[in-house]
Amino acid sequence: MTAAYVDTLDASNSGRTLLARVGLLGAPDPAAQLTVANGRFADGDLRGASEAITEAQRLLDDAESTGILRLLSVIAVVVLLLGLAVVLLRRRRAEAASD
Fold it and tell me: How far apart are the C-alpha atoms of 25 and 22, rounded to whole Å?
């Protein structure tokens, strides 16, 4: 368990890509999860410590793919809004031309 803690701590403290940072926005902080694990370990709750370490590692592992999904979602919303704006402008021009 200590090896998993050290590995996760190293991953948590290492530099993150832009996508990983976007993926961690609004998510629980992996370093905070490690602090919880540390406290649980000190209290003798090995199962709880292991679960907190696993959760921190999962957050770090999923950060980049979550960031990709978030950026793709933002792009999709922008494209849809631009498409809606184009349709509305064309409709307005067609109505103005028919008057």
Answer: 5
Say whether 34 sits in a helix, a strand or coil: helix
| Residue 27 Cα distances to 15, 17, 76, angstroms | 17, 16, 22
What letter does residue 99 receive in the DSSP assignment? -
Q: In Å, how far from its chain's centre is CA 54?
A: 17
Instruction: List CB contacts of 65: < 8 A, sequence separation 6 or more.
Output: 23
40-50 confidence digits (pLDDT tens): 999 999 999 99
46: which 2 tokens? Answer: 């090995």
pLDDT in tens, 42-87: 999 999 999 999 999 999 999 999 999 999 999 999 999 999 999 9
> How many CA atoms lie within 13 Å of 61's alpha carbon, on the beta-carbon side?
8
